[in-house]
From TrEMBL:
Transmembrane spans: none
Protein name as catalogued: Serine/threonine-protein phosphatase 4 regulatory subunit 4
Self-association and partners: Serine/threonine-protein phosphatase 4 (PP4) occurs in different assemblies of the catalytic and one or more regulatory subunits. Component of the PP4 complex PPP4C-PPP4R4.
UniProt KW keywords: Coiled coil, Cytoplasm, Phosphoprotein, Repeat
Sequence ranges of the HEAT repeats: 214-251, 253-291
Sample GO molecular function, one term: protein phosphatase regulator activity
Lineage: Eukaryota, Metazoa, Chordata, Craniata, Vertebrata
Organism encoding this protein: Callorhinus ursinus (Northern fur seal)
Function: Putative regulatory subunit of serine/threonine-protein phosphatase 4.
Length: 873
């Protein structure tokens, strides 16, 4: 007997408990009451019903005249459609009704009207003259609506209209009335609107008109009695300065900014400071050194005594300020400004006391939030400060500050410095090794937001870490970073354990750069098996695909044939022949990546037969996915070397057409047959139409061959010298031996047969040159964001497919299950020489392999096993 569950044991049917249940039921009924009340009565439904025979224009007029507010709002929202459909009738009948309704309309209808008027302008439904005549007065009438949101909506619409109106219309309809609207006798809201309109009008008139009619209004508003108006006008001075030119800016705008920077209102001083920073490029060196620098110095000195919001703005504009004033600082001013920045970077950290937030007064919490914003802005400006102090002085001047920002207790600060980490690495160049430890710190950060920000440029950062700097220091770059691999693996496991699968997917995609950073053995033992595990066990499809593609790239640049064959065998056995249909689907995804990343011969040799054998899969989804992949599979074949593979492909498609019982799969098979029929196939010799694709494929094949030759040379060197070539030496030689990336210069026009028709030279000099070339190719593949991988065509043209429908009645081609045999091993490159346990096919027309001599069970037909296989959902 099991004891009753705690919930059942705790049930109490006492009187108090029953009263509690009754109260809960009453609350539920109260919640339901508004739902019942919201139902419309028959009378209300009758009032909302409109005759279906009315046209759109007539229905709009009726609803605006006699309908309810929600119906009128719907008509106004539909106004752009009516203007596109029948502009003349809309302007004649509907728009007058809109003018009547808007003065008494509610907020929602007003906001809808502002958006609709702006949409009509953007869609050019009518001419500018017609728009100004019909809509402009309505917009101007509602600019000073009592609701601030409505007023701002109409103002945004007007500012967009000003961009396209002719000068005469602007002068008569907007500028002339603006003289009275900007007077002190008008409301504050009217003067605020006037400030924003003046800032927009400046770019529409010539300098003489601006000086005579606009600048007097600007000066008047800068001296307004309300600080809100002065602040608003101050922020428009930047637009005005761009419209009036340098001379008038110096004589008119700069004196106003100087006076406003001393204003009693903190928001006005802040607006003046930000406008000065944005206009630094307009002023010459004398103005900057004699006028602006003293103002900035005074502003910085008083900032700690003023409101924290000023510190937030100051810290945000610090980088632009340093750039604009660079070169006019004295050494003492330069040092003081740098110390000011360092002080901002640690602002608020001295007050950390570990108390519970519930015990801290609200004003202190608000102050701490502002301090966090200041430090976040300092992290944002850190690259600019490196330029300010010169990267050569980074270690002495800014390293301790960088350390503090990377270890800041607040996530937004660390997140921002993680975003800037790549820029910092580029600026440091040869000194990038100084921030190795901070890279590890951010990779190990407890917040996934920080990790997500860092990995956006992780490949570039790691490449700078491994290649940047002087040659004398270069050999110690990665050896001085022993924690890199543990940090990378821990970051991946932390992302995998979270619910943020997009971060996990992105991290796996960025791991594709690792063959360029660390050794092949390190990838094989620390990362490759993890990719397998993710593909087999993860529940998120994009994550599985990212792991699959990264695994293919790891395989592409693996330098040991034994390891490569082991990976291929695991892909075929655990995915392609896996018990779960989900794994077999992932195998087809992997085949697609193999076609993209590897040469055609590699795919045909190892993956062609395991892929097309899935035409016998018992699960319809697998067969369906294979049908979508078949055109890409066919694109890997070359005629006449792969004629027997083409026949096997045709046989599989024929069997699908004849034996497929699932109607969805059969429909896709029929479409696939038509697509295969239209495809043209590549030939062994170069064809003009496929020249670039064939050249790219030959480059891939040659890199794969040279990687194998390099492995053979390393084995010979190990036997001769008794020690292997270190990865450090290999990386150095790979960088020193770069070849031009122009394929046409480095690859002969005639394609040598993969079987190696020419006798290979045994001289050590030729082998060494091959080693150097292979090292160079391995290096080139990862430059320009690993361009070879991204530029691989997803679809390759292939050639002359015999229609399957035509093969259905012919007996010329006789294929049995024995056709699924290994390809001629004597006709393939030595680099692709498979291990006995791997299924393989070969290009060429050599004698077929004797089935008795092949000990691989995987090369035998899988029809019987596939029939008996049960798929796991």
């Amino acid at each position: 007997m099991h004891p009753p569950p705690p919930a059942a044991a705790a049930m109490d049917f006492s009187q108090n408990s029953l009263f509690g249940y009754m109260e809960d039921l009453q609350e539920l009924t109260i919640i339901e009451r508004p739902v019942r009340r919201s139902l419309k009565t028959p009378e209300e439904i009758e009032r909302l019903t409109v005759d279906e025979d009315l046209s759109d224009i007539e229905r709009a007029v009726y609803l605006l005249s006699a309908g309810q507010d929600i119906q009128g709002t719907s008509v106004i929202a539909n106004l752009p459609f009516l203007m596109r459909q029948n502009p003349a009738e809309t302007l004649r009948r509907v728009l007058p009704k809109v003018r009547e309704v808007l003065p008494v309309a509610g907020v929602e209808m007003q906001l809808t009207a502002a958006v609709s008027f702006l949409t009509i302008l953007q869609e050019d439904s009518v001419s500018i003259h017609t728009y100004a005549h019909s809509f402009l007065q309505v917009i101007l009438l509602h600019l000073e609506h009592r609701d601030a949101g409505v007023s701002n909506a109409w103002l945004e619409t007007l500012l967009s209209v000003i961009e396209v109106l002719p000068k005469e219309t602007l002068r008569h309809e907007i500028l002339n009335p603006l003289v009275s609207k900007a007077q002190l006798s008008q409301t504050v809201q009217s003067r605020l609107v006037s400030c924003k309109i003046l800032g927009k009008l400046t770019n529409k008139f010539d300098a003489h008109t601006i000086k005579r009619e606009i600048l007097p209004l600007v000066k008047s508003l800068c001296q307004d009695v309300e600080y809100e108006v002065r602040s608003c006008m101050c922020r428009q001075l930047e637009n005005i300065a761009q419209g009036i030119g340098t001379e008038l800016t110096k004589s008119v705008v700069l004196p106003e900014l100087i006076e406003l920077s001393r204003d009693e209102g903190s928001s006005v001083r802040l607006a003046a400071f930000e406008t000065l920073v944005n206009l630094l490029d307009v002023f010459d060196t004398d103005d900057r050194s004699q006028t602006i620098l003293p103002l900035v110095k005074s502003f910085c000195e008083k900032s700690f005594k003023a409101d924290e919001s000023i510190l937030i703005s100051l810290s945000f504009h610090l980088g632009k300020l340093c750039h604009g004033l660079y070169g006019i600082f004295t050494p003492d001013q330069h040092l003081r400004f740098l110390e000011f920045y360092k002080k901002l970077c640690t602002l608020g950290l001295q007050q950390e006391n570990g108390h519970n937030e519930n015990q801290i007064p609200p004003q202190i919490l608000e102050q701490e939030k502002k301090y966090i914003s200041v430090r976040k802005n300092c992290a944002y400006n850190f690259p600019a400060m490196i330029v300010f102090v010169d990267p050569k002085n980074f270690h002495m001047e800014l390293y301790s500050t960088f350390f503090c920002l990377c270890h800041d207790p607040e996530v937004p600060v660390r997140y921002t410095i993680a975003i800037c980490f790549y820029e910092v690495s580029k600026l440091l160049n040869s000194g990038v090794y100084l921030i190795h430890k901070e890279l590890i710190t951010l990779l190990q950060d407890e917040s996934l937001e920080v990790l997500d920000a860092l990995i956006d440029h992780l490949p570039e950062i790691l490449e700078l870490m491994s290649t940047g700097g002087e040659s004398s220091i270069q050999e110690n770059k990665l050896s001085s970073l022993p924690d890199l691999i543990p940090a990378l693996t821990a970051a991946e496991q932390r992302a995998a354990a979270s619910l943020k699968w997009r971060t996990h997917e992105k991290l796996l995609q960025k791991y594709a750069c690792l063959p360029h950073i660390i050794s092949s053995d390190q990838i094989y033992y620390r990362f490759l098996q993890r990719m397998f595990t993710i593909m087999m066990t993860n529940n998120v499809l994009p994550v599985q695909k990212a792991a699959s593609r990264t695994l293919c790239i790891f395989l592409r640049y693996n330098r040991k044939q034994e390891q490569r064959h082991e990976v291929i065998q695991k892909l075929i056995e655990q995915l392609g022949q896996g018990k779960s249909y989900w794994n077999r689907l992932r195998f087809l995804d992997t085949c697609e990546f193999i076609i993209e990343i590897f040469s055609k011969s590699f795919f045909c040799k190892y993956f062609f037969l395991p892929a097309i054998e899935l035409t016998h899969d018992p699960v319809a989804n697998v067969r369906m996915k294979l049908c979508y992949l078949l055109p890409k599979v066919k694109s890997t074949l070359k005629i006449p070397a792969d004629k027997h593979l083409l026949q096997q492909l045709e046989m599989c498609v024929r069997k699908l057409l004849c034996q497929e019982k699932d109607k969805d799969v059969l429909a896709i098979v029929k479409r696939t047959v038509l697509e295969l029929d239209r495809m043209e196939m590549s030939m062994d010799a170069f064809q003009k139409k496929f020249y670039e694709k064939d050249l790219l494929d030959q480059e891939k094949e040659r890199e794969e061959l040279l990687l194998m030759e390099m492995e053979q040379l390393e084995k010979e060197k190990q036997q001769n010298d008794g020690r292997p070539m270190s990865d450090k030496t290999f990386e150095k030689k790979r960088r020193d031996a770069k070849t031009p990336t122009t394929l046409s210069k480095s690859i002969p026009i005639s394609v040598p047969g993969p079987s190696g028709t020419s006798t290979p030279s045994t001289s050590k000099e030729i082998k060494k040159s091959k080693l150097i070339r292979s090292q160079s190719f391995n290096n080139q593949a990862f430059h320009a964001k690993y361009g070879n991988l991204d530029k691989c065509p997803s679809k390759s043209s292939t050639a002359g497919y015999t229609p399957v429908s035509g093969l259905g009645k012919t007996s010329v081609i006789s294929l049995t299950d024995d056709s699924f045999r290994a390809r001629n091993a004597s006709s393939i490159p030595t680099s692709f020489s498979p291990s006995p346990s791997l299924p393989s096919t070969s290009r060429g027309t050599g004698n077929p392999v004797d089935p008795k001599s092949s000990g691989s069970k995987d090369t035998q037909p899988r029809k019987a096993t596939l029939k008996s296989r049960k798929s796991n959902p």
